[in-house]
Design goal:
Deoxyribonuclease I, Chain A, 6-stranded mixed sheet, 11 helices
């Protein structure tokens, strides 16, 4: 009888152990899925519309319709660029997104960067680029304080995400390329300075593509290699290969008209693990948005991505102070006035260039 009892006890212990192992494994690998949309919404005032020309674009209507469409979708986070003078029309439609960053204003004072989320946003920080290039032409990047919008987003279950929304210097002239490389240098230094206490996602309008090789303005060198960031499109649609794009160049074609909004375009999701949280990209796609009349809302395509965040055995909940940013109307007014007069000075300094540009 004693032997039977011992055998029964051993079997019971083995049974409990077999049940415990998967339960413990499940606890260690607790996961959650997060969907994000990145979109350059083209929220600049349209001069032709203001002047009453037939080719003018009703940006107010575009942003209103975009807001309605986005509000009916299931993204957890929406990161936008060029969200300038018509922010209110976009934001008022996003009723299912209770959390949003403080709008920095329209042109010329704002940076056009904003984040909308279904969960809390903390530690919002806006950092203008150290270098920009172009006053009248070459993207006119110096006329707005483009840069980096950093936020810390609570994903629940103790997981916090470092999210960076950027808009890099535009155009392909020598001055713009040099400025954009410096943008990526500045971004990389900011990411590295924050350490590895939280998982990271960088999104936005990069105005550069990794398949351009040595002409990628340091994207590969500074962010992919330097910061250890993975690219969701590369991982999911190019087999994780960062230096061979023959399939796409041969089947779709290289050059701006072929890859723009189709493959390895300007809108990206870069990501890396942190704080004992592992990230996997599970979905990436480009998509467009149209008005009810079939007009494209933006000259860019949006990028949508889905990511799985999995706690590992090294998980540690970050204890950094979390602050909710409040709008400072006085500071905002002073900053906008300063930028306005700075831009005015730049315009007068390039008056001859402006006259040629507008055909006077």
């Amino acid at each position: 009888m004693k032997k039977v009892k011992k055998i029964s006890a051993l079997l019971l212990a083995l049974l409990m152990l077999s049940l415990c192992v998967p339960l413990c494994a499940a606890a260690e690998s607790e996961s959650k899925s997060v969907s994000i949309l990145c979109y350059n919404v083209a929220g600049l005032p349209n001069i032709n519309y203001i002047l009453g020309k037939p080719e003018g674009i009703d940006v107010k209507n575009h942003q209103t319709q975009l807001g309605k469409q986005l509000n009916g979708e299931s993204y957890d986070i929406i990161a936008v660029q060029e969200d300038f003078n018509f922010h209110g029309y976009l934001a008022e439609q996003l009723t299912t997104y209770p959390f949003k960053t403080v709008h920095s204003g329209g042109v010329p004072g704002g940076d056009g960067l904003n984040v909308f989320a279904r969960s809390a946003i903390y530690n919002e920080t806006r950092t203008p680029w150290d270098q920009l290039y172009g006053i009248i032409e070459d993207g006119a990047d110096e006329m707005t304080p483009k840069g980096i919008l950093y936020t810390c987003i609570d994903l629940g279950d103790g997981i916090f995400l470092d999210l960076y929304d950027i808009h890099a210097d535009a155009y392909g002239d020598e001055g713009s390329c040099a400025a954009r490389r410096d943008n990526f240098r500045q971004l990389a230094e900011m990411i590295e300075a924050r350490g590895n206490d939280r998982p990271v996602i960088v999104t936005g309008d990069f105005n550069a593509s990794i398949h351009q090789g040595n002409a990628d303005d340091g994207l590969y060198e500074l962010l992919y290699v330097g910061c250890g960031l993975k690219d969701a499109w590369v991982e999911l649609h190019n087999g994780g290969e960062y230096r061979n794009f023959d399939h796409w160049e041969e089947t779709v074609g290289g050059g701006w008209p072929n890859y723009w909004g189709v493959w390895d375009s300007l809108e990206k999701f870069l990501y890396r693990d942190g704080g004992g949280v592992h990230i996997d990209a599970t979905h990436f796609a480009y998509k467009g948005y149209q008005t009810d009349d079939g007009e494209e809302i933006s000259d860019h395509k949006a990028a949508e991505g889905t990511f799985t965040f999995t706690k590992t055995a090294d998980f540690r909940e970050n204890t950094e102070t979390l602050n909710v940013t409040q709008e400072d109307l006085k500071d905002s007014f002073i900053r906008k006035i300063f930028i306005f007069f700075t831009d005015l000075f730049r315009i007068f300094a390039h008056w001859d260039e402006l006259k040629v540009y507008i055909g006077l």
